[in-house]
Give the backbone structure.
Amino acid sequence: MQSERQRKKIHIEGIVQGVGFRPFVYQLAQRLGIAGWVFNDSEGVKIEAEGEPALLQVFLGALQRETPPLAAISRFALEERPVRGDTQFTIRVSENETARKAQIAPDTYVCEDCRRELFAPTDRRYRYPFINCTNCGPRFTIVTGVPYDRPKTTMADFPMCAQCRREYDDPRDRRFHAQPNACPYCGPQVRLHDACGDLLPVEDPVREAVRRLQEGQIVAIKGLGGYHLAVDAGNDAAVAELRRRKVRDEKPFALMSAGLAQVRTYAELDTAEQSLLESVERPIVLLRQCSKHPLSALVAPRNRYFGVMLPCTPLHELLLENGFTALVMTSANICDEPIVFQDEEAIERLNGVADSYLIHNRRIYMRTDDSITRVMAGRPVVMRRSRGYVPRGIFLPAGQPSVLALGAELKSAVCLTQDERAFLSQHIGDLKNMEVYRSLIATVDHLQEILELQPQILAHDLHPDYLSTRYAEERSGIPRVAVQHHHAHLASCLAENGVEDEAIGIIFDGIGFGEDGRIWGGEFLVGGFDGYRRAGHFAYVPMPGSDAATKEPYRMALSYLRHAFDAQLPELPFLKRIAEGERRLLLQMMAQGINSPLTSSCGRLFDGVAALVGLRDRVSFEGQAALELEMAIDGPAQRRTYPFALVQEGEMLIFDHAPLIRALALDVLDGIPAGVISACFHNTLAQMVRRVCDQLRQTTGLQRVALSGGVFQNRFLTERCLELLESGGFQVFTHSLVPPNDGGLALGQAVIAGRRPAG
């Protein structure tokens, strides 16, 4: 009988610790009559399994197909072992053998089992806001160190009661080794404070918070990775007051609803969007607004989309059970500051903003904002990678030295690589103040701690004045590699898609420091991880007032008009909104090159067009003008385009937008609606991209195209480019799990630096 048995050694890597993988293996082995053992080691999970060959094959298949909800297998290796005659299957004590490669799971939603218990009056965790199990609950935000077990989390503050301990120790239980396991008798508690921070003596803090929200109050709510500011999304006065207090004039607010039934009353969603909304990551998903909906128009002014998420914690489930169509659930911060995550800090920084505070005593160790996603061409695209996705690894095309990449200035995120995997941090913010800079330092320290890695190379942006560059310069003892901004975008897209070969890079964004000292942003690159060539770009125009031109798009509109018409500017309506003296001064600045750096930026072209058609002269948040130009599109089925020129200057292909601007200006003067002009403008850019790729294919032989940069958050433009390029026989790569904007830049920096000798 011994000879009829087989024994296999199985080595599994990925997110397989702290997610119920060992009890899953144990229960599977019990069901199939497999003998052997399983344990965690420093790289993942090791198994030795012995049994009849047919049953062993079923066991191996089920290991890969029936994994726990939070598990993610990145490597599954098998080897033959001699039969030992084991008769039982056991869970062994964990071992540490080599450098740590096991991954910590991201924070995740409330699983259906826990949700049922949450609302079951007979369950001992009935209405307990911190119910969780091995399949759900906090992970990344509560981890203080490794290995991942309770003493190295903020749950160390809460010793388990006898009942919780029995669940924790029983491999047949859903809460076996669930590190955040707790109940109302031994776990965290929620409490309500007034606007001054004083504790309110209420019997049920959650129900009292709901009552206050129904009255129109602003309630600061402590979640998984930080505080949200919440109001009833159907209450105009409450939403307006939140905007006033938060100093957020027009940027859209995120929404949270109890379920799909509520979401469908105000937003449209297809199958892909529904799947994304209900996914274990529980991100914010951009959904098209219904033509008639019950929410305040102030939630997302001048926008056709709502940012919507479903509850991601039991506390949110309880808040939304009482009939709100949606709550505004916006990050608790003021202007450009990071999300507030510590209790004392919340009461101090949100003084004068929140009417009350719903606080709990489970510490958040690492602040983590909500992730933002969008479906484009039927595929989910992460636009802000944070809660639910971090610190999940991304496989690289090849192994490399450990690199710490620091990203750029806007939408900052860092990346740390380990062999063939890259770990992008959560969204940190815009590095424009010291509070965000301190958050960058804390994030780097935490990522190094949980991965047990010290980088061998430091990668940073080419721009000398970014705070991330200064951090790199101040960190002694590590070789540094400066990476050009748009090359990093190209590499980020290729790395995410596992492409090692060279490609044509269509890189469109706002601003990035170019190797010629100018501001790039509309770039046609050819290259890969080992290097690149700038094959072309948008025609340079001045940015009058430099940074002021990013905040006042009318300046860029004037610059593009000047480029297109020289001295004979047409009297477009937007010019009447600029004082004659200021107009004259701006034209003089550009003519004399005074505080008017040259830019090839695609983002600035969007800004200029938004002002030209009368949509937006000034912005209150980054990317607002481009967003509103996309939102204005009317008649997308029409394919009319404007003329444009592609000019060969030596080895450089220049997109001259002067013909486009001249034709667009005539449409404005003829009274063509802004929405129609916007559709034509977008169609023109897509046609230009196809023409550029056609020409570069002729000279390089390349058929691979990578689309990257913040402009490719634009759904209409991205889908039109994909359609035209794929119909032309190109193989097109876009982003999905890594943001196309600067939030994904660190990945590209890391891969480039890993291939380049440090200086």
Notes: The first strand starts at residue 6 and ends at 15. The radius of gyration is 27 Å. The mean pLDDT is 93.
